[in-house]
Structure formats: C-alpha cells, structure tokens
Amino acid sequence: MPWILIGLWTGLAVSLVIAVAATPDDFGLNGIVIGFIVICWAVGLVAGAGISAVIRRLRKPPVTTAPESKASEKRSWARRALLRLAQLAVGLIAAGIFAGLVYATSGASRPAPLSGLRWTDETPAWSPNGREVVFASNRAAPNRGIDQLYLMQPNGADVRQLTAGRHDAREPSFSPDGKEVVFAANVLDRANDYTEKGAIDLISVDGNQRRSLTSGFHGDAGNPAWSPNGRWIAFVETVSTDSASRSDLYVVRPDGSDLHRLAIDIDDWSQPFSWAPDSRQVALVGADERIYRIGVDAKRPVRVTHDNWDAVTTDVAWSPDGREVAYVRGHIDTSTCFCGADGSDVVDRNLWILDLANHRRTRVRWMLDSGSLGDFGVSVTWLPARKPLLAVFSGSRTAVITAGGRKIRSIKTPNGGMLTAGSASTTGRQLLFVDGPDNSYRSAIFAADTHGGRIRPLTQRGRAAG
Fold first, then answer.
1. Contact (CB, 8 A) for 198 and 174
2. Hey, what domains does the chain have and what are their CATH numbers?
3. Are 323 and 309 in contact (CB under 8 A)?
4. What is the overall mean pLDDT for the chain?
5. Which of 40, 55, 59, 168 is most buried, by the most CB atoms less than 10 A from its CB?
6. What is the DSSP letter of 436?
7. Are 443 and 121 contacting, i.e. CB atoms less than 8 angstroms apart?
C-alpha cells in the first residue's frame, strides 16, 4: 500500500475510534471540538510516522553506507522525510474533516425550529440528585390559563401531575433533600386574572401532603427559594394599592413557624435576592447600589434605601463558593409611559460582580434589555464547578463565562431560549431553558449540556423538534 494511503487511513481510523467512544453530548462548536480535532491530528501524526517507519524497515533492510555516499544518503533521507510529511498531512486533514462531519451530523449545533406547541411549559427546576425536573404547565386546562405542577425524568419521560385545583401554581423548587417542592400559588378570579391572594405552598413529591406557609397574608407572595440547608424558605410579598405597591422580603420555616420579615420595600424585579451558601444570610441590592446582606436571625427588618428612583437591580446571585455576588444593574426607560413590574422597561443593563473580600465591584459585560425576558425569566445563574462559572442569557445565545467575563462557550436554543431560577443542575453540567415561538405564550422546556452545547427537548418533544 502506498505510504500516502497509510497516513490517510490512520487519520480516519483514529477519528472514528474517538467519535465512537465519545457521546454526542461531548460535541460542541467550542474548545471541545477543537481539542477533538487536534487530538485526531496528533495521534494520526504519531501513528502514521510509526507505521511508515515499521513498514519501510520490513520492506528494505538497512544497508551500510560507504563514507563517500553520505551526501547522497542525506538527500535520500530528506526526500523520505518530505514524503512522510506529505502523507501524514493528508491523513491529518482527513481526520479534521471527519471530526467536523461527526459534529455536523451529531445534532449538537441546534435543534430544529419550534412549531405546533400546544401548552405553556415554564419555570423548570432540577431535583438535588438530578433525577427529576419539576415544572409548571397549563396542559391540564390550556383554555383556562391555570398552571399546575408536574414532575418528569431528566429525559422528559414519565410526566406526572403533582398539583390540582383552582390555584395557579408557579415558580417551583425542590427542597435540598428532594422530598418536597415549594411553589407560589395564586387564586384566579372568574375572568382568570390574578388576584392579590397569592400564597407560598409546600407539597410532598408524592402529592399526598400539601400545606400553606403564608395563611392570612393579603398580598401576592412569590419568588420562593429554599435556603441551602433546607431550614428556611425566603419569599417576596407584594401589596398593591390604587396608587402604589410595596414588596417585602420574608423568611419562614418549612413547617410554617418563625415567619418574619427581613427587608422592607425591596426592588421586586427578576430574582431580587439570593441565599448565601451557608444559609445564614440573604443578599439583595437596593436602588442605591448597595449590597444588603441580612442575617436570617435579624431582630428588625431592614428598610432598603431608594436614593436613585429610576435604577433597577435584578438577578442577584450569590456564588456557590460564597466569595462573590453577581447582579444586573440597569435603569427604567423614562421615554416610555409604562414601567411594569416585570422589568419590561429596564435598559442599559450591565452584569456586575461584587468581591465580598475586598468589596470591589467589577462591571463584567453588557446585558440584554429585560424586555426580552419573560415574566419568570432570569439573566444570570451560577454553575457549580471547581471555579464557579456563570451562565448569562443574551437573547440569541446563552454564554458560559468566568466571573472575570472570559467566554468559555456559547449555547444556542431554537428561538433564543430563556433561563429560570432553577435552570442549573447541582453539578453545573446541565441547564434548563424555556423556549417558544415569538409572540406566543406557548413554550417547551429544553436541556443543554454546558460542556458540549448539545440541546434536547424535554417537553412536547414531537412538536418542539419541528
């Protein structure tokens, strides 16, 4: 066999072995694919050179060269070296092409466009062990607009309904031990509009036990979040009048005891607070740009200062290692006549990182205006890792970056996608997205591999795949 074919088939064989050994989730248009191709080339180079040398030795035994033929031998050696480099170059190019074909056919780039969705599946969250996902959906009564909670496996199988009744269930999250789910429940009126009778409820994962933690409240309770140790649940209560509204931060024990207020008049926008990893404090940011760290055992609630009336802080997120707090800062667009509580008019937003050791604030990057987020969407979430990373929603893509802003990889969903408070798995390897067609309230849930970028639909799979 000619030597040039040796390099060709060596490169192809090495590529094939690596491609078969790797799962499709390991492919992505990022450093992993580049590394994959480089590995193919490097192994092909070494293997091709070795095979060529062995075959040449077997076919032509070494001969003793007379002193007077040394110049001729050098020229012959140079020709052989150039020939080997040529044959190996062909093999390495073939390896790279094959790697690119494997990536292109693996489906890692993006799923097909969305079409034909029937329901609104939203606010998904991982269980602590990564074996279940809880989410809200109106699939039980699409025409009434009432969401109920559902559980499913990480691959989207075995969907089962968890809640029922006339209460709208949303924003669920698992307890740290995975035995219960806390969620915001809202009573709808006869016109299916939200009322000011929202509550924070708790239900066991088998659906047999359900109780309210906020009986007697007169406002709309939302944003429930477990403390990492499972001993507290924090939430926001908003009381509205004809002229104004006010949001306060509360904490309560999972059994409903020790209910008390931590902060008065906070910015109730997207993800307004975050638990410290040690569960002793809650971080929130006031409109005066100060970070408030409030202990759960505080004797008196803190009244948050509002020195800058048009400033808005959202997406507060304490890093898993406890060293930093991320948040997004913007201001209300005063050119519009409506500034809704969903943050639809927050512009000029930027991601900031506060180093808690030296209190230094660093602007990391520009952020998309919040009008591109849904009612329960978030812009930022931490990914647990040896050095924690951030997943940052930017509209058409979600970027995985370091706390310093260096981009690691990019993930693209069919129509831009949207992160929610429970998007990140406890390992940081998976991200949940909510995605749907433009100008539609219908949406499906997707999961993305943060290392490889592969995206797969979890709900409405026959329709989400197009």
1. no
2. 3-59+75-105 (no CATH), 121-464 (2.120.10.30)
3. no
4. 77
5. 40
6. -
7. yes
| Residue 363 burial class via C-beta count within 10 angstroms: exposed 0-12, middle 13-18, buried 19 and up | exposed
Tens of pLDDT, residue by residue over 444-457, are: 999 999 887 788 89
In order, the DSSP letters of 247-314 are EEEEEE-TTS-S-EEEEES---SSS-EEE-TTSSEEEEE-TTSPEEEEETT-SS-EE---SSTTEEEE
Q: What element of type H or E holds 352?
A: strand 346-355
**What whole-number distance in Å separates Cα of residue 170 and Cα of residue 185?**
7
3-state secondary structure string, 392-431? EECCCCEEEECCCCCEEEEECCCCCCCECCECECCCCCEE
pLDDT band at 107 (very low <50, low <70, confident <90, very high): very low
Q: Which amino acid is at 36?
A: F
Distance between CA 335 and CA 338 in Å, rounded?
A: 9
Which value, to the nearest 10 degrees, does the dihedral of the CA atoms of residues 354, 357, 358, 364 take?
Answer: -30
Nearest-Å Rg of the Cα atoms of the chain is: 28
At 382 the pLDDT is 93
- The residue whose two tokens read 């001969």 is 63
Burial class of 54 by CB neighbour count within 10 A (0 to 12, 13 to 18, 19+) = exposed
* pTM for the full predicted model: 0.74
Residue 464 has pLDDT above 90, yes or no: no
With 0-12 / 13-18 / 19 or more C-beta atoms within 10 angstroms meaning exposed / middle / buried, residue 353 is buried
Query: Alpha-carbon dihedral of residues 205, 209, 214, 215, nearest 10 degrees?
Result: 160
Residue 378 tokens read as 């978030």
